[in-house]
Amino acid sequence: MNVTPRVEGDEEVDAGAIDVLRAGIRATPELRTGLGVSIVMALVMAMGKMVIPISIQQILSRGVSDGEPDWTFIIVTGAAATLAVIALAVLTRFTYMRLMVTAENVIYGLRTRAFSHVHRLSLAHHNEAKRGVLVARVTSDIETLSQFASWGAVSWVVNSTIILVSLVVIAVYSWQLALVTLIVIAPIIPVMRLVQKRQLDAYDDLRTRVGDTLSEISETVTGIRAIRAYADVPAARGRLFGAIDRQYRSQLRARFFFAIMFPVSD
């Protein structure tokens, strides 16, 4: 999936989601710590989510299929499913605790390096650049990366595994039903790609609007004496409210695509 092009030298390069992920892992060594173990745990969590539907299917097919309930089979299957769900709950809590620790380490490392980089910039660069842009980069952008480290990454693994395991289980019981399922799901893939591309563009615009709003606030606060001295308060208020309104509308547009993705994916 293509995202907003990034510039390397004099050329623009289309960065895909996997390219962005690899770049993020290279830029954050903290994210690589225990990554393999977390992925394995996420895979186990995904497969564990199939315990209840498979248990119900087995009880209905083998426990009560002949009219007389086989209580021994039902009790044993129910007990095994209960133990599996409890173990899955413990594993889920442990996995998310690991991810939260990793996410906080990622935030700490990224912010430390980001602030160090900002402090190394020349005064000329600070005078030319909008302050709100720098603030947005070292706060909201890093917070987004933290959300990916604590939730987005494991969702990729868990949801992808659930899809594959579900299709395999369906195919084992009925290949015809699995084929029908694939035919129904297939059109969703291009729709999701189209929506995601527009969502990425919308969030890129929102990030720019956040920087503009923070810049306008900073300039208004630091220049308040000059604004009052020259009776420019109404104009300054208009510029600030305009920046806030543009951010609001940009956020509505970004949330619109976000609201489309979840129902379609579900």
Describe this structure in words.
The protein has 266 residues and is mainly α. Residues 1-13 have low confidence and may be disordered. The longest helix is centred in the middle third of the chain and has 50 residues, at 71-120. Strands 1-2 form a two-stranded antiparallel sheet. The protein is built from 11 helices and 2 strands. It is elongated, with a radius of gyration of 25 Å. Strand 1 (6-8) and strand 2 form a beta hairpin. The protein has helices at residues 17-27, 29-32, 35-48, 51-63, 71-120, 123-128, 131-173, 175-185, 188-222, 224-229, 233-265, and strands at residues 6-8, 11-13. Helix 5 packs antiparallel against helix 7 (131-173), helix 7 runs antiparallel to helix 9 (188-222) and helix 9 (188-222) packs antiparallel against helix 11 (233-265). Helices cover 85% and strands 2% of the residues.
Task: Please give a handful of descriptors for the protein shown.
2% strand; 266 residues; two-stranded antiparallel ribbon; mainly alpha; 11 helices; single chain; disordered N terminus
Main sheet specs: 2 strands, antiparallel
Strand content: under 5%
Low-confidence regions: 1-13
Order of helices and strands: EEHHHHHHHHHHH
Distance between termini?
A: 20 Å
How many beta-strand elements? Answer: 2
